[in-house]
Amino acid sequence: MTVMAALAVLAGSVGLYPLFTGKGWFWVALGSVLAVAVGGTLGRRLRLPAAFTAVAGAAALLVYLTVLFASSQALLGFLPTPGSLGRLDELFGQGWKAVNDYAAPVPLVPGIRLLVGAGVGLVAIVVDLLAVRLRRAAPAGLPLLAMYSVPAAVRQDGIGWAAFAVGALGFLALLMADAREQVGGWGRVVFTPRWSQEVPVAGAVGPAPAPQRPDARSLMSSGRRIAFAAVAVAVLLPTVIPGVQPRGLFGLGGGGGGGTQTVTTPDPLVSLQRELTERGDAVVLTYRTDAGPRPDYLRMYALDQFNGNRWSFSSLSTGDRDRLQPGVELTPAPGLGPVRVRRVTTEVRVSRRVREMDFLPVPYAPARVSVKGDWRVDDASRMIYSPRDSASGRSYTVVSAQTMPTVRDLAAGTAFPSEIARRYTAHPRTVPPEVMRLTREITKGARTAHEQAVMLQRWFTRTGGFRYDLSAPAPRRGDDLVNFLLHDKRGYCEQFAASMALMARILGIPARVAMGYTPGTQSGPNEWTVRSRDAHAWPELYFEGAGWVRFEPTPSGPGGAGQGTATSPSYSETTAIAEQPGEDGQTEPTPSASSSTAPGASESAAPQGRPDPLGDQGDRGSPQEDDGTPPAGWIAGTVLVLALLAAPMVARALARRRRWSALRPAAGDGPGARDDGGAGFADPAEAAAHAAWRELRADAVDHGLEWRPGDTPRQAARRLSELLELDAETARSLGRIARAEEMARYSRSRVPAPAEVLRADVRAVREAFAASVGRTARWRARLLPPSAMAATSQAAQSLGRAVGGRVRRDGGRWGRVRDRLGGWRSRNRDR
């Protein structure tokens, strides 16, 4: 079992291969598994308790990791010391930082290798404890499954079927080894000759019949039926659960028909970080456009939900109504009014080397898209996505409606629709008060929403002291956000876009985070090339009449504005109303005193046309903010799990209450029990005796005490008294229960004790049972009473027999009908 447990963990660890760039991680994992196996074997040889056996495995794992990563600081090269433990802790921190900085596959730096060895080793400790020490091989599959959940959560494609098959075979081999040892504990299998006409009679001459194996054909047939049913359920059931198989059965379908499914995609922020930090600078796409010398950004994602830690986009459906129709004009983008709009045509060619691109990079806002394949459009965000196709190697044409708002247009667009304000100004109540106060201080003196947005952008790019740094970790918690805004002040486009969008929402301005690519670099007349380093994130703010417009809070770096090809729109650089026509026909604002006003320079009122969203409320959130209430599905699932866990305890309590209230025993426990068919016993005292005896038996079973069904009441009471060493009073209570059951079974002249006395005796004996067993047995008797579990199992078996009988009767009836129909068709054919 030790060998099979180690092999099962190694087979399960094969599923981790997509997470790393090399193959060295497997040898680290192999050493961890071998170390745990040696430590567990040593603990079992010393006959240590189960918990100490796990400790022995953990100690062996620590020694192995010390030799591998901190031998120079260890005593004799392998014994852990404070210095070696400090070195392991340092490497652990470096590995954890690398996990957060890189997207899979990650490089095998020493910290990553340490995380692999420790993680696989912990799984090996749990599997060794469950399968080898506690002989519970089936639950050992849970930690093995946990290793598969890591690549499934990180990568969209999960792992290949071959790696999953290797892990599944390892777990099945562990189960087979456990079953073989369990059966082998009973001794050698005994075979007997079959009784048949070929068995010679007494005195016959000839060799005796050879022992033959028992006829197991019926068992094999049942096993095959059960296996086929289990596989069918495992394969077919996920296909009818929404969201579990978004690409259809075996990835061959999905998206068609009239149903809808949920679109899943890799985390856009993780993909952005991977493209910005990878060493190469591969070409992502090329395009031709008539947008002039300054094309707009190519947007892929619009992240509209903020949970306090991360930005994400709302769920997207894959219904037929969302499908792109060739040559069909899309509905106008939300919020467009009298603002100047020009039509721009863009022809895009995506590189074949691009992978996992399920969203098309398009200029905002797309009005008509010509692309082959199954592609959909989300009306609210104008994201173009596919539930099953990829943009890799595709060419497509986009006609977009590019808005050209002026400062005057944005200054007037402050009357936000209620639906837009409710959805895009929501933020959690967990936003730190420091961020609320900082937002108010930065925009102090602003008169319009546009002025507030310009002040925020200027604070990030000029006056706030921020610098562009790709090595900065992304904020994960409220404290990280405070540190980024007030202390560290370094990051890349993700941090700046997410922070400005959140601060705009705090001010009551609808905002979201957009992601995609900057225009790239010009490679020819009207031709542009976009590389992986051009990946970018920016905030989009909503102004009525202009719709969603972009801002650029990422500060300039050594190569330009962050990514180097990022540019700031003219309307985001000033709050002046006086304007002059620009080179490309756009209006270029001229600077004014208001455009250079520093944050906090005046105490003006809130922006005109809108009430101050902060006002006297201090640091309280806006009325539309999210209160962080868990989704209804999680609440329902939690309630269901708690109800299932409490079901045995509730069933036991109901059975006890019903037994004492109705005093209707079921079938008796011995040969002398009298049953009147469920109508109850004529004598209430006799019924109380049976109820007390059945309650005593259930309590004994619940507390793990041996109960022999063949014992008489007197024998059972004597054995329990000797086993538990009861005190005199409790022994008398047990004796009264046994005598009452004897008289109820065998005597018609003597009357058992009253129900109240027997009920008190049962309660006293139950307390004695609980005091005589360990804490684990007591809690099991309360939470998972075996008597209730047995009753549930018997009820399920009875139901199964009833259903099976009904199916057989119906099958016979339908068989006779089929025979009659067959005879009728045969006669008509002959006729």
Automatic annotation (TrEMBL):
Residues 807-831 have a biased composition (Basic and acidic residues). InterPro entries: Bact_TGase-like (IPR052901), Papain-like_cys_pep_sf (IPR038765), TgpA-like_C (IPR025403), TgpA_N (IPR021878), Transglutaminase-like (IPR002931). It comes from the Bacteria. The chain crosses the membrane at residues 25-43, 50-70, 111-130, 137-154, 160-177, 226-244, 632-655. SUPFAM superfamilies: Cysteine proteinases (SSF54001). Coiled coil: none annotated. Residues 587-607, 795-805 have a biased composition (Low complexity). GO terms for molecular function: peptidase activity. Keywords: Hydrolase, Membrane, Protease, Transmembrane, Transmembrane helix. Residues 485-555 form the Transglutaminase-like domain. Gene3D superfamilies: 3.10.620.30. Residues 564-577 have a biased composition (Polar residues). GO terms for biological process: proteolysis. Residues 552-632, 664-686, 795-831 are annotated as: Disordered. It holds the Pfam family Transglut_core. PANTHER family: PROTEIN-GLUTAMINE GAMMA-GLUTAMYLTRANSFERASE. This is Transglutaminase-like putative cysteine protease.
